[in-house]
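Morning. Coffee machine broken again, so started the prediction first thing and wrote up yesterday's gels while waiting. Chain of 151 residues, entered below exactly as on the submission form.
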Amino acid sequence: MKRHKMRRGVTLMEILVAVFVLSMTIVTTTAMFSSSALLRTRSGGYSRAATLVNRKLEQVRKLSTGQLTSSGLIAAGVVDQNAGSGPNYSFTTVDQLTNDLSLGSGTLSVANAGTDLARVDVTISWKSYRGKIESVSAATYVADKSAWKEP
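Came back before lunch.
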C-alpha cells in the first residue's frame, strides 16, 4: 500500500471562503463610508445654520425695543431692505444665506415690538442633500433697560 504524502497548501474551498469574507468586509466598509459622508453633510448644514441663527440673535440683542421696527431693523443692517413691514422680516440677502446653505432663507419675527419686552424668533431654512427642507429656530427676548429700574 502506498501512502499519500500530506499536501501542503490551500484548497479551493478555503480560497472561496476567504474571498467571500473579504468581499463582505469591503461591502460593509463601503456602505459605512457613504452613510458617514451623508451624515457629515447633514450635520454640517445644521452646524452652519445654528451658527447663523446665533449670530442673528446677537445682532438683535444689541438693539433696543424701540429699534425692533421695520425701519429700525433695516437701519441696523439686521434685515433685508425689502424685508416687509409686518412682524415677519427676511434676512436672506443681508446675510447672504445662499452662500452658506443650499437655497438658504432666513426670517425674523418680532412680537410685542415697541413695548418694554419684545420676543424675537429667528428661523433659517435650507434644502438638504436629499432635497428635504431643513430648519433651525431660536428665540430671544429684548428688554428696554430704561424701563426696568429697581425701586
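The two ends are 116 Å apart (CA to CA). Going to sketch it on the whiteboard this afternoon.
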